[in-house]
Amino acid sequence: MTVCPTFKELRAAAEELSTAAVSGVSGALRISSGRSGPCLGVSVCTHGNEPAGLAVVWWSLFERALAERLRCGEVVFVLNSPQATFDYFSGNKNARFVDVNMNRLDNEMLDVDSEHYEVRRLRELLPLVQQFQVALDIHTTSIPTEPMIVEVSETPRQLYAGLPYARIVSGISEIQVGVPVGYFYGGYGRSIPCFEIEAGQHEAQESFVRAIESFIGLMENLGMIERPAEREEKRAAEPFEEYEIASSIMFPDDSYELVRDFENFGPIARGECLATGSGAPICAPSDGHTLFASASRRPASLAEEALFLTHPRRLVMPV
Q1: Do 219 and 142 sit in the same domain of this protein?
Q2: Angle at CA 46, nearest 5°, toward 42 and 48?
Q3: Which of 240, 228, 58, 86 is nearest to 164 (CA)?
Q4: Which of the four pLDDT bands, split at 50, 70 and 90, describes residue 22?
Q5: How many domains does the chain have?
Q6: Model pTM?
Q7: Kindly report the CA angle at 79 between 74 and 85, in degrees rounded to 5?
Q8: 2 in a structural domain
Q9: With b meaning 16 or more CB within 10 Å and e meaning fewer, what string describes 63-96?
Q10: What are φ and ψ of residue 288, in 5° steps?
C-alpha cells in the first residue's frame, strides 16, 4: 500500500526542493545511483496549485529513500514554478501561474528579453532540462476528471506498461496553441520520450498516490529500480485506449459558445453542431471524441481553444 503525504509534508518537500540546486540551477535536486543509465527528469508544480508532483518528491526523499533503491541512472526533480507554488501554499488556491501558463508557451519568447516570470524561470532551467533523456511532467485538475496520460512527444508504449491509467491522449503538442514546457526537455531539435500525467483532482489523496505509483512504474519500466514479481504479471495485462488529437475549436468572436457541456472522451458524429454564435455554426468535421472543453462553454480568451477533437479511439497494447 502506497503511503500518502500530508499537506504539511508536501510543503516540506517543496521547501526542500526549492533550496536545492543542480549545476547551479536552483529549485532542482538530483538523486544518482552512481552507475550509468537513463537521466529521468521529473517536473513538478508546472502549475503552482497542482501539488501531486511534490508527493513524488516527498516519497523519494523522506518515505522510501530512493537513493538506496536506484540500480542505475539518475532522477532529476525540477520545481518549475517556485513562486506560484509558494503562492499556493500561502493560501491562494488559484495560483496556477504568475505571468504565463508554462503549458502554453510561445517558443519565440526565449529569443526576446521577456520579463514574464515563467519565461525567466525556463531560461534558468534550460541547461539542466536539456540533459533529460526521459521526462515526466506531473499534473492534476480542478474538477473531477478521469486520470490520463498526455503525450508531449512520441514515447515508446512499453514505458506506460503497468501505470495506473486506462487512457492515453496523443498528438496534442502539434495542435494546441503554444507549446508545453516539456517541448524544451532534452534540448532543441532533439525529441526525447516525454509525457504528462493528469493524476486526478488537485488535493485528492488518490491523486498523490497515483502520482507516486506512476513514478515507481516508470522507473521500473526503465530498469532503474527492481520490479517486484507480483507487479510483473499486471504490467502488460490490459490495453490502453488511445485518443489522438485531430483538431481544436477556436471561436472567431465572443458571441460563440459551446452548445452543451462536452465530457472528456465523449463521442461525437460528423456534422454534429458543437458551437453557435453570430456567424455560421461550428460542426464536427468527422466522427471522434471531445476533450478539454471550456468549463463555462467559452474559453477564457479567444486565443485559447474552446474544445479539442480526437480521432476515433483505438486500443493499443503497452508492450
Answers
A1: yes
A2: 125
A3: 240
A4: very high
A5: 2
A6: 0.92
A7: 155
A8: no
A9: ebebeeebeebbbbbbbbbbbbbbbbbeeeeebb
A10: 170, -140
